[in-house]
Amino acid sequence: MLPTLTTPRLSLRPFTVADANALQQLANDPLVTDTTATLPYPYGLHHAESWIAIHDDLYASGRAMPLAVTTREGELLGTMGFAALSWMHQRAALAYWIGSAHWGRGYATEAAGALVAYGFADLKLQRIWAECFTRNPASARVLEKVGMRYEGCLRNEFLKHGVFEDMLRYGLLADEWYAQFDA
């Protein structure tokens, strides 16, 4: 069962079929799809419905943990979750996007902080990592704000719109995360 996490302003919860329309509207934005590795553009309702439909299988298989990021009042803002989960190696990739109308309000940082805490404290992960395009400094700042350290640049790592893109890699270890509470 996928968890529900709450923060002062947000809820991270499993997606439902009722989220499909709002998800499609947020994801069908070239500003959003341009900064993500896998979202297609245009993003149709069938994309949203089929993606939501596989969530239980992704979680049950231990491969991913996608969650809806909403306001406490229920407005869908985007998605955040763990991908590339490896229980054998106790690691996961943090993956997310927030609708462009909600950028600059700290939602991604707040949601990422909650998910990182859940990953280390509840899932007992040893390592959480994330990547972002070099041309997306806002995403890099989110990762730095939740304590991730820059680990390097993966040159020509991803082909997006026919152009090879460099990706920045960030990571955080469990002992580094717990050390912040000892200070």
TrEMBL record:
Signal peptide, first to last residue: none
InterPro entries reported in the protein's UniProt record: Acyl_CoA_acyltransferase, GNAT_dom, N-acetyltransferase
Keywords: Acyltransferase, Transferase
Keyword Acyltransferase tagged: yes
Domain spans labelled N-acetyltransferase: 10-175
Keyword Acyltransferase: yes
Annotated Pfam families: Acetyltransf_3 (PF13302)
Record family assignment: Belongs to the acetyltransferase family. RimJ subfamily.
PANTHER family per record: [RIBOSOMAL PROTEIN US5]-ALANINE N-ACETYLTRANSFERASE (PTHR43792:SF8), GNAT FAMILY, PUTATIVE (AFU_ORTHOLOGUE AFUA_3G00765)-RELATED-RELATED (PTHR43792)
Protein name, as recorded: GNAT family N-acetyltransferase
